Amino acid sequence: MININSGFYLYNKQIYFTRENALEEMLINNDFDSTMSFYYNDNIFGKLDWSIEPNIDISRLYKLRAQQIRDKYNHVIIAFSGGSDSTQVLMSFLKNNIFVDEIHVHTVEKMINRFDKQILANDQDLSVLMEYEYAVKPMLKYVKEKSPNTKIVVHDVSDYLYDQLSNNKFVPLTEPIVTHRINSGLNTTFGWHYLHEKISENDKNKVCIVRGFEKPVLFIENDNQLYFRFFDITTGTSSFINKSKIMKSYEYSYVYENFFWSPDMPFIPIKQSHMILNRFKSDSAFLNNYINYKKKLNAGTLKKIVHSNSLSQNEERMVCEVIYPDWNPNTFVGSKPIEKSAEFKIYEMAVGKHQGERLKAELREFKEKKYEKIVNKLQFYKPIFSRKYFIGEI
Fold first, then answer.
1. Which of 38, 179, 332, 363 is 20 to 30 A (C-alpha) from 24?
2. CA 239 to centroid of chain Cα atoms
């Protein structure tokens, strides 16, 4: 059963759960000028007036969401990266004494440990890998003190990375929204391995992995009108699972729970958007910085992936300090690689040259050749956004 709550694509009045399936249908129909649409729980979010700020504190909303998830499942797992999103998710459980069964984190520590960590932390491409050392570990220590019965599972994927690159079989697991990193796909891979190997058959439909999806995606139109849109980052896991060799079937609905973007607690993104709008109104310097980041971001080329560059990162840092009351701005945050995968680079340092970049390029060339007749090539790689929701005037 497909979890339709993760969103879907619509083309020619038909629903698709991957971009590739919609593109294939365009080719079959010789319909090369069309563009697919993305729908994200429009039946819920579309009925709400987004211009009205919910009269409830954001911390209260986060507490209600955490309790809602706890009540829904027998076994709750949090996918934790140490970043602002997953930190707020984790803290929403911990500080409200809502029990978390397990926390899963991922690292390439086996490779990292071969090098001076301070040097890695100061490297533009590699510093993101040090978030495990400087952001995740301190939080895990806090978890052990606060909730000693919570199981902590650390997946060192160094061997998996070595297997993929040394045997020339690497495929970017996060297609079609290609990033310069591969750990998002690795998280999915190991998460599903765990669910199917460690959780009993009777419990599988009562287990969830909680993801920190996602910060508000805001757009300013006509100089003073603020809008919100969802985008299809939410479909990445479903897409991967559906075509994965690991998964023979996708029979469990609601296995993944998006903490912030959920039709079960729709007022969270509305409240967050109004918090940012209020900051825009009260702080002109904040607004001007945000607008400047957006302008530079929108000036990117087709092949520059917008969700993996430093401009997007700066924008996110601004926003998370507004909407995440439990985020410490002094937490170590590595620079997001712009041109080179951090995993690729650490592999080269630890092992040697590999064919990962070539394999990634071949996959991209194959896709561009396969769909070359389709006019709107932005839908090959760029995020596809949902309908827009009006928040208010700045």
1. 179
2. 13
pLDDT confidence bin for 254, thresholds 50/70/90: very low
DSSP bridge pairs for 77:
102, 209
The Cα 65–Cα 272 span in angstroms is 14
β-strand 8-11 against 37-39: which pairing, if any? antiparallel
Q: What is the secondary structure of 173-241 as a DSSP string?
A: TTTTS--S--HHHHHHHHHHHHHHHHS-GGGGGGEEEEE------EEEETTTEEEE--BGGGGHHHHHH
* Domain count across the chain: 1
What tokens were used for 127?
Answer: 């510093």
Distance CA 170, CA 152 (A): 28
Whole-angstrom distance, CA of residue 76 vs CA of residue 117: 33
Structure tokens that stand for 44 in this block? 């819920």
Would you put residue 168 in left (φ > 0), alpha (ψ -120 to 50) or beta?
left
Distance CA 358, CA 308 (A): 20
Helix (H) or strand (E) holding 351: none
> pLDDT-derived band of residue 304, with 50, 70 and 90 as boundaries?
very low
Burial 1-23 (b: 16+ CB within 10 A, else e): eebebbbbbebeeeebbbbbbbb
Polymer length in residues for the chain? 394
Containing structural domain, residue 73: 4-393
Three-state DSSP state, 154: strand
The residues that bridge with 37 in the sheet, in sequence order, are 10
Burial of 152-169, coded b for 16+ CB within 10 Å and e otherwise, reads: eeebbbbebbbebbeeee
What is the full DSSP assignment across 44-91? HHTTS-TTSPPSS-HHHHHHHHHHHHHHH-SEEEEE--SSHHHHHHHH
Burial class (CB in 10 A: 0-12, 13-18, 19+), 323: buried
The dihedral over CA atoms of 54, 55, 58, 62, expressed in degrees to the nearest 10, equals -80
CB atoms within 10 A of CB 346: 22
Query: What is the distance between the alpha carbons of residues 331 and 328, in angstroms, rounded to a whole number?
Result: 6
Please give the backbone phi and psi of residue 30, each rounded to the nearest 5 degrees, phi first. 55, 35
pLDDT over threshold 50, residue 309:
no
pTM of the model: 0.89
